[in-house]
Amino acid sequence: MVLVPAYGPPFVRDLEGERRYATIADFENSVKLAYMSQNLHHSGATVREPVDLPVNKRHFDMLYAHIRYSDKPFMCSVTHPERAEDSVAMAKIVFGDHFVENNAVLINLINANSPLVFDATMLGAAPVYARHNQATVVSPFILAGAMSPVTVAGTSAQILAEALAGIAFTQLVRPGAPVVFGTFASPLSMQSGAPTFGTPEPSLIMYTCAQLAPRLGVPFRSGGGLCASKLPDAQAAYESANTLQTAMLAGVNFMLHTTGWLEGGLVMSYEKFMLDADQAGMIARFCGGIDMSENGQALDALREVGPGQHFLGCAHTQSNFESAFHRSTIADNNSVEQWQAEGGLNAAEHANKLCREALAQYAAPELDPQIDAALQGFIKRRKGEFADQNY
Q1: What are the residue ranges in the chain where pLDDT is below 50?
Q2: Which pLDDT value is given to residue 81?
Q3: Contact, 80 vs 128, CB < 8 A?
Q4: Do 132 and 101 form a contact (C-beta atoms < 8 A)?
Q5: Alpha-carbon span 187 to 200, nearest angstrom
Q6: What is the pLDDT of residue 148?
Q7: Which is it for the CA torsion 312, 317, 320, 324, positive or negative?
């Protein structure tokens, strides 16, 4: 199970609580936070849309940020065939031409334009990656009730048809090109028309599609910390938890939108990023399963401690207490007196504090200076070949 940050929000709710358009600095901060998180395996893609840069050139800066500020895998541009080619070219600067053609170093997201259509943008980018043997997530993006039927079975059938069409297309381009079956399904409120999250129906759809993916012999993408809340509050917590835990139990392999998602995907929140990353640690612990080793079975502790006694002082507890249970970085389990003495912070305030500390302590991974210079030279040359566009 690969846990990946949110994808695509044009707005950010920053550490001062302001909701504003995201910038390239916010994008770089998200890459840095994902890099430092022990619970995220992937740097993501458009973790925030940097609207301060030209639309037709910002992919260079986003890809460079993933390469320069993190050493985790990253996703690539799908908004134009030329941008897909640029993504592959930059990957080849980092990894080498021969290595890229024989190994998947990039993964991209191709959405169906539901119902039952793939648009020119998606069908322009997909073959670029397939030709170069790079991984493609084929993922219908559905608001059920508008883009699919209002039933679980009907929506699941449509998702399967759309995903199979996209998967087959990649294999026509290059047989054996790596591919992932994806889905994103959110129901519309039949009262307001707004998308809703954390409800039972998308969970049932996710479980259904998670059973179909192994029958196709491909990995499965879904899930994430999805919510409609405007703030990192109780609504955000329970809606996100419902989706994250469903995805965990379904066996999702590539969990996009794990961290940071607010307001139906319009906003990336610094605090929500930290809160969700904490949940990602719990997912990792759960997926680790049960330790059935001699130490895990704790028979020596059961033999040592008799009826009516306690396990706090026994040898097994003393030797395991530091790693016995998952420890949240956010949740406060202290007495109310200690909590008040430490500032009486709520979860979002604690997350804000941890986020500021993490960014202040960030240190970039090493990058070969020759590769860095080659990347910057490529970006400068390509940006100079065409005029800026902001649409």
Answers
A1: none
A2: 97
A3: no
A4: yes
A5: 10
A6: 97
A7: negative
123 contacts 108 by C-beta, under 8 angstroms = no
Question: What's the predicted TM-score (pTM) here?
Answer: 0.96
User: Residue 355: its pLDDT value, please?
Assistant: 98
Q: Could you tell me if residue 331 is left (phi over 0), alpha (psi between -120 and 50 degrees) or otherwise beta? A: beta
Residue 18 CB neighbours (<10 A): 8
Q: At what angle do helices 81-95 and 120-131 cross, to 10 degrees?
A: 20
Return the exposure string of 248-259: e unless at least 16 CB atoms fall within 10 Å of the residue's CB, then b.
bebbbbbbbbbb
Domain limits of the chain? 2-288+372-381
Tell me the residue type at 218: V
CATH 3.20.20.480 fits 2-288+372-381, yes or no: yes
- Per-residue pLDDT at 391: 82
